[in-house]
Amino acid sequence: MMKADMTMKKPFDGLLVIALEQAVAAPYLSSRLADGGARVIKIEREEGDFARRYDSVVNGESAYFVWLNRGKESLKLNIKDSGDKQLLERLIEKADIFIQNLAPGAAGRAGFDSLALRQKHPRLITCDISGYGEEGSYVQRKAYDLLIQAETGLSAVTGRPEGPGRVGVSVCDIAAGMHGLTGVLQALYEREKTGVGQGIKVSLFDGMADWMTVPLLHQEYGGKAPDRVGMNHPSIAPYGAYSVGNKAEAAQVVLSIQNEREWQSFCQGVLTMPGLLDDPRFLTNELRVMDRVALDQIVELVFSGLNKHELEIRMEKASIAFGWLNSVSDLSVHPQLRRVSVKGELGEIRQVASPIQIQNNEGNISCDSWGGVPAVGEHDEQIRQEFGVVSG
Question: What is the pTM of this model?
Answer without folding.
Answer: 0.87
